[in-house]
């Protein structure tokens, strides 16, 4: 719904200079790295349960399909939060929404600590998703504006690398840390959440010290849920970016839901640390590829991401059929690297095309579509495992992802012609 001039959101962006900072606040450069560190922490917390799912299965005796349902609850929380609150930082302020998101993550940590029963696990994953949905678009927009304030007129390359690496790299650190704590220390279903609870508390204090980059309007605009609109300056480009995000997050969803159980049960490797290493390798490859692809042109970056992800999911189907852990690990690295580069390209494209006063909205829409990919395909895969074997289901998954990548290629060519 369009706004009239008296209620239109004030432009977002960097403050004119250091004098605009409140006493005791960090400078924009320090604020940039602070928000990046908090972003990493919050995203790592969201994947802490990944290597622990087999332990939860033993504790409550639920099936592989139930794991995908628990995972879907998390994704539903993200989607609901993106729809209702992913864009409100455009007028409420980045810091306000970031603190609210971190408080939700802290509440989820308290739930994990309270009980390991399935109903509490489901509730904790839902609250985690609500916090992540508020945080992703807001932190990304905040990083963009802090970077611009710290380095006026400079290339956006630092923002592109740090924002996507913080997001994807954080997702990979969570399983690695949780797997190591579960493997070597006591209370594997409690200790990881206690550690991250402390880190989240520190993150809240750190965010309160960062500069705000949004000027609040004198009259707050009428609230409306997030619009999923491609009208951000380049309709074909936005649709192409959203399709790339959907395909990329489908791969991430697979490795954070079903693959740890597959490694444990089918490949007979029950180590929690190994499960964390496999998932971390996927996201680590994604983050590394994002950094290394920084100097590539947008077209070269998209092509590299598409090819690497296509090769990775194809190799995954082979590794599953041959029950080969090295092939599954290599497939995860390839698919993760491709997905990371492809998603980085999508975020950079959307951040550049969106008007400053709608940047949070545009990024929230991108994350909304991406998290649909995170939820729908892995849940469909979990459902398929109830009727077919895991190898057959994963083969179908690979086929669907390859088809999605073909759609991204077609949309990219259409954008080029436009």
UniProtKB/TrEMBL annotation:
Protein name, per record: MFS transporter
Keyword Membrane: yes
Membrane spanning residue stretches: 30-50, 62-85, 97-116, 122-143, 164-187, 193-215, 236-259, 271-292, 304-321, 327-355, 362-381, 393-412
Keywords: Cell membrane, Membrane, Transmembrane, Transmembrane helix, Transport
Domain Major facilitator superfamily (MFS) profile: from-to ranges: 30-417
Localisation per UniProt entry: Cell membrane
Membrane topology label: Multi-pass membrane protein
Gene3D superfamilies hit by this protein: MFS general substrate transporter like domains
Highest taxon of the lineage: Bacteria
Region (Disordered): 1-23
Keyword Cell membrane on entry: yes
InterPro entries, sorted: MFS, MFS_dom, MFS_trans_sf, MFS_Transporters
């Amino acid at each position: 719904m369009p706004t009239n001039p008296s209620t239109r959101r004030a432009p977002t962006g960097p403050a004119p200079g250091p004098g605009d900072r409140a006493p005791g606040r960090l400078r924009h450069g320090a604020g940039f790295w602070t928000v990046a560190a908090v972003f990493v922490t919050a995203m790592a917390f969201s994947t802490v349960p990944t290597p622990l799912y087999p332990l939860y299965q033993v504790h409550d005796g639920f099936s592989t399909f139930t794991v995908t349902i628990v995972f879907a609850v998390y994704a539903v929380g993200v989607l609901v939060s993106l729809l209702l609150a992913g864009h409100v930082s455009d007028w409420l302020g980045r810091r306000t929404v970031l603190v609210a998101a971190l408080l939700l993550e802290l509440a989820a940590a308290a739930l994990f600590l309270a009980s390991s029963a399935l109903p509490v696990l489901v509730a904790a994953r839902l609250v985690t998703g609500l916090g992540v949905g508020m945080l992703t678009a807001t932190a990304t927009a905040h990083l963009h504006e802090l970077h611009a304030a710290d380095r006026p007129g400079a290339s956006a390359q630092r923002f592109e690398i740090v924002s996507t690496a913080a997001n994807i790299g954080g997702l990979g650190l969570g399983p690695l840390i949780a797997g190591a704590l579960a493997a070597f220390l006591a209370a594997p279903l409690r200790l990881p959440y206690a550690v991250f609870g402390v880190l989240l508390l520190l993150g809240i204090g750190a965010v309160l010290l960062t500069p705000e980059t949004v000027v609040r309007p004198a009259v707050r605009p009428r609230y409306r849920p997030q619009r999923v609109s491609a009208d951000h300056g380049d309709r074909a480009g936005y649709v192409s970016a959203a399709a790339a995000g959907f395909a990329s997050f489908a791969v991430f969803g697979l490795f954070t839901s079903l693959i740890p159980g597959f490694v444990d049960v089918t490949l007979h490797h029950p180590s929690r640390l190994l499960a964390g290493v496999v998932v971390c390798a996927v996201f680590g490859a994604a983050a590394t590829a994002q950094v290394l692809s920084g100097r590539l042109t947008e077209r070269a970056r998209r092509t590299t991401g598409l090819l690497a992800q296509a090769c990775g999911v194809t190799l995954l189907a082979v590794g599953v059929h041959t029950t080969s852990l090295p092939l599954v690990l290599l497939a995860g690295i390839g698919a993760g690297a491709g997905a990371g580069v492809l998603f980085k390209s999508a975020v950079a494209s959307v951040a550049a095309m969106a008007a400053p006063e709608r940047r949070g909205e545009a990024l929230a829409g991108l994350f909304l579509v991406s998290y649909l990919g995170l939820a729908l395909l892995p849940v469909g895969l979990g459902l398929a495992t109830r009727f077919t074997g895991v190898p057959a289901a994963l083969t179908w998954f690979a086929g669907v992802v390859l088809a999605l990548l073909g759609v991204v290629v077609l949309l990219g060519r259409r954008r080029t012609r436009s």
